[in-house]
Predict the structure of PDZ domain-containing protein.
Amino acid sequence: MKPIHKIIAIAVVAGALGGLVTYGGISYFVNDTNPITQETAVPKGSNKGGTAKVNNVKVNVQTQSEQAFQSVKNDVVSVINLKKGNNNQNPLAQLFGDQDRNRKTLQTNSEGSGVIYKVHNGSAYVVTNNHVIAGSNQIEVLMSNGKRMQAKLVGHDKVTDLAVLKINANQVHQVATFGNSNNIKVGETALAIGSPLGSSYASSLTQGIISAKKREVPRVSSNGMSFGDANVIQTDTAINPGNSGGPLINLGGQVIGINSMKMASDGQGATIEGMGFAIPSNEVTRVINQIVKHGRVIRPRLGILYTDLANISAKQRQSVLKLPKNVNQGSVIMDVKPGSAAQKAGLKKYDVITKMAGQQIHGLAQLRDILYAHKIGQRISITYYQGGHVHQTTVKLVP
């Protein structure tokens, strides 16, 4: 009980003193008893002695975060998306009487970030987001040393939102390394480097933690097209517009993800803070290696058009698909391409796929996600209903 008494006593004293000052008369009483004298008056004379100086004692504040930033900062670039625009929109062109009103000029459309990860035969390769360079007529990168360089698009992938650029390597003196994103832990420190709000804030560093290793979020393009669910790293590290395409790194300076998106609201007006997402480095390396080798990502195909069983009415499930009443999840085949892997495996129109590679099909995007997780030439099992009866088959995946 003694600590409680002590707290109460302190509160009472603070309140009592406050009351004495508040209710007046005290300041006059103090002034009367302690009048200002020559000893307590402000001295007259020069103000030269009021000059402040900085102490020369240096404090070593180097931390693992600072070391990690120093090891990667020169590999991070601003990616500038340039698009053609009418010259008559330029007030300077109008002011000086530009005669060719229809001439197209390149204008900055948007800016993002990227990271240099490879040098080969005089070229340096930069990974960024596909949405950073989408719709561009020309791409430039701003190096950490302020040099602006033209970039060539090697290839891009809408599904994973990744793109690879190539620049001249004469200004590149180091490259970033990728860490194993499977080895990260929830709670460990994560750092984001990039150009929030554009190249004016290039090489900005923010710090947070890994909030979740594998978080499924909808993958939607700028025009609203769905690409299924993305399996991403969730972090509370500040990620703002312009950070897209920049690296998420660990304290060892390794790239463990490429920052891609953030959640800003819950769709009902509530603002959300500290929910950013990065594409895991293991997926990044798999995708960009294919882009560099083939110019695109080659994925396996079944050769079918399909829809979610949830889109089919209960009546049609019975009359057309002839499904048992306990089957309420899966993907309905609406068409099968002749000569496709699906046709060779015996799949037909109006079949309902309920399992693939041993996993239950719960939604439209899941079938595609399972398929894309496998490689060309692999065989996967499919469980499906045909004419009301359950069947199993094995499909060899082809491009």
Residues 67-171 form a domain with the Thrombin, subunit H fold (CATH 2.40.10.10). Confidence is low (pLDDT under 50) at residues 1-31, 99-103.
